[in-house]
Amino acid sequence: MSGLDGVEFITFDKRAGRRARLALREQLAERRFDVALCMHASMRTNRLLSSIHAPIRLGFDRERARDFQWLYTNARIPAASHEHAMDAMMGFARAIGATETPLRWDVPLGVADRDFARGLRDEGRPLVAISPCSSARQRNFRNWPVAHFVEICRHLVEQRGARVVLTGGPSSLEREYGQAISASVDVDNRVGTTSLKQLLAIIDEADALICPDSGPAHMATTVSTPVIGLYATSNPARTGPYGSQATTVNRYPDALRRFMGKSEDEVRWGQRVRDKRAMELITIDDVRDKIDTVLDR
Length: 297
Prior knowledge:
The chain is of the alpha/beta class. It is about 35% helix and about 10% strand. The protein is built from 11 helices and 9 strands. It has a 6-stranded parallel beta sheet with strand order 6-5-4-7-8-9, with helices on both faces. It has a 3-stranded parallel beta sheet with strand order 1-2-3, with no helix packed on it. Helix 4 packs across helix 7 (about 195-205) and helix 5 (about 145-160) crosses helix 6 (about 170-185).
């Protein structure tokens, strides 16, 4: 987000614990604000709110104010249920007087980043980006099997004539995925080699992005690239790629029934399915069908 007009970033490094909280308090000691939009309800964030000098600390309604957020705020957005996370965030904007406007992000990308991404395209061929891995979190199973990605890449390259670019971070798991896929099918493996700005430029240039529940899905939303989202352990109606619900593979209801014995109406909004087998409910045919829908537009 660096270079975004009119926005100042003050970074809090949560890994530094108490030392980071003290540093933030010192940074903000002389600053005064009209309102603090408390858009992340967690105990770690709640504890930071006393460092922000603002007469209004606007938080979630009581139902959604996790970790006792209502004790740290003095105003609430209107209550709502079963909202997409994006709509929940927009509730803060509406609460301070913003009117509905077309969504736009204007994330700044430099000429070099755009030229880099354009250089990956073969004229006349669809360009499809695949970011196969989500970030590693305890008991948060969101990655599709690598063998399934190999089959999807074969479909893209051999049946659709596409150029496929693999993207991802430098973690060992992501590199393993990239190496295994690129060893089996002719794709351009860029896992662990791009900056975030280059990644966004690739996604912007691409005709489609395929990924699980992860950051790149939301990056694609900011540049209007269709996302073929792979969702089984989390509810895409709440956290899926905004604007790409129709092209997202949604096996979340099936995972709830299979591994929890419940329907969507019987669990809290945003309930995770904590079973590593859940993502295997997404079939290769599910993803092929979405690919063909997107590329045939």
